[in-house]
């Protein structure tokens, strides 16, 4: 450890003699005893009372958010399986959807902050948990659960079937580039999901089945 300089030579004294001071010795780094950032197994920056209080505060807030999310998910899925006989959801791959936009060092991505915000919003809803709850609650209530292919559900016009990414004018607005039908984007997508689920149901009904086979 470098020798600590005394207070007296921290600043040149006003009444210092006009003689030039000798050149300062270069600092000698001795590996003898490096200062450990850990004291009794706890990092030095985590030792203060304020840090611990702030940590506990954040932990409490996160637990509150988690509890509220869980209760909302159960309320929603319970309502779906008790009010409807047929529930259709998209077969969403949350893991693929929430991939980072960061890119690589050679080809850096664009809109990284925006994508990370969207990812947070997607994960905050907890689609995976909602689906898991629907999958076990639907049989309990005698409800049919359809899982449909999510491809282009938000780019397809539910009225004429035209598929165009440009039809999605903004986050909320959907205006078909072919027939000019306009609707809320999420409602249009939901109608498409319903259509797909009903189509799958009809195909299933048409399929011949051997007698006494479970569905
Ligand atoms: Zn259309």
From TrEMBL:
The keyword DNA-binding applies. The keyword DNA-binding applies. Residues 1-12 have a biased composition (Basic and acidic residues). It comes from the Bacteria. Residues 13-22 have a biased composition (Low complexity). Keywords: DNA-binding. Residues 127-193 form the Cas12f1-like TNB domain. Residues 1-37 are annotated as: Disordered. GO terms for molecular function: DNA binding. Transmembrane segments: none annotated. NCBIfam families: guided_TnpB, IS200/IS605 family accessory protein TnpB-like domain. This is Transposase.
């Amino acid at each position: 450890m470098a020798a600590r300089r005394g207070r007296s030579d921290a600043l040149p004294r006003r009444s210092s003699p006009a003689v030039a001071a000798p050149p300062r010795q270069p600092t000698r780094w001795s590996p003898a005893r490096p200062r450990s950032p850990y004291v009794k197994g706890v990092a030095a920056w985590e030792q203060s009372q304020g840090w611990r209080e702030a940590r506990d505060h954040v932990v409490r807030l996160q637990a509150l958010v988690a509890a509220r999310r869980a209760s909302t998910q159960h309320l929603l899925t319970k309502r779906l399986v008790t009010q409807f006989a047929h529930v259709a959801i998209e077969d969403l791959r949350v893991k693929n959807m929430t991939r980072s936009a960061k890119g690589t060092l050679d080809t850096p991505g664009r809109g990284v902050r925006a994508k990370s915000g969207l990812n947070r919003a997607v994960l905050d809803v907890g689609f995976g948990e909602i689906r898991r709850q629907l999958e076990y609650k639907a049989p309990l209530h005698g409800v049919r659960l359809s899982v449909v292919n999510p491809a282009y559900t938000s780019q397809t016009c539910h009225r004429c079937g035209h598929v165009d990414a440009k039809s999605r004018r903004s986050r909320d607005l959907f205006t078909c580039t072919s027939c000019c039908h306009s609707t809320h984007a999420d409602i249009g997508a939901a109608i498409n999901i319903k259509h797909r689920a009903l189509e799958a149901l009809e195909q299933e009904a048409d399929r011949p089945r051997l007698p006494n086979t479970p569905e």
